[in-house]
Specification:
single chain, alpha+beta, Peroxisomal Thiolase, Chain A, domain 1, 2 domains, 25% strand
Amino acid sequence: MTRLPSILSIATAVPEHVLEQGDIARRAGRMFGERLAVWDRVANVFHTSGIKTRRAVRPADWYETPRGWPERTAAYLEGACDLFRKAAGEALTRAGLAPGDVDSIVTVSSTGIATPSLEARVAADMGFRPGVRRVPVFGLGCGGGVAGLALASRLARAEPGSIVLFVAVELCSLSFRLDTLSKANIVATALFGDGAAACIVSTAAPGLAAIEAAGDHNWPGTLGIMGWDVEPQGFGVIFDRAIPPFVASELGGALDAICAREGVDRSRIDRYICHPGGAKVVEALEACLRLPDGALDVERAILAEYGNMSAPTVLFVLERLAQGQLPEAMLMTAMGPGFTASCVALRRSS
């Protein structure tokens, strides 16, 4: 019988520039305070977000000058390709593989536009084979770390023994907008960071954890909860303030439906691995999953150190957990534009 797809390795990468939350709050106050009437009410998000530091592809001063699509795209292509190389290269090294061993590449990114896509741009210098299959995916947002891993597992299952490289790269800081005086823009300025994560997925070896099942749940009539507006100066963030209560009230039922459909017994889950979108989202997750306060401690630690990096963030949580002994049965979950919940059931390899 063919072995289930497994995560053979996982690696993460972040850019060099460190953003201290206190410094960013002061800069934001200087840039927005006198122009935004509700500044005093929204500024507290910098202190309640649960974030201490973040990483960015450009130094803090760069973001204080108005930027358009050409400058944002140049920064995206340079920064995303660099992080792709670092995360993918380290994941391959940890799996004892070379770039030429890769059969398929799944690339998830929603914070920039690249045609040719990122994996094509780094293929020659990384050493991927000319015949490698490329699957670039745009638009998954924060759900992309889980949905992309699920896609990689399906490709690995479809061609037993093949090597699938999954890379999630997001440069959320490039969405920062000086010209947009909205609460959503301020919240994004307080939350977003940059990072990348990569996994090697295959049926060829047991690895860290087997991917037992995966599924999604889409809520009708929820397109306005999260996403991008494509505007002349760049992406404009769509954030509905109702995300934490929506998570608290809706996610549990969605996970029940996914697990029932995929044959996963939720009562046997030892650890939920969640995308930490913000401090209030983590609290909502603990409430809807009926977890003790503080149970998602690793999620809070990743959020504090790196902020919300969108798709890669949940993979940072998985990597941190894998540095110890993984729990036996895990359910990895993230929510993203659509509005969609994605989850992957993992079982620790013995």
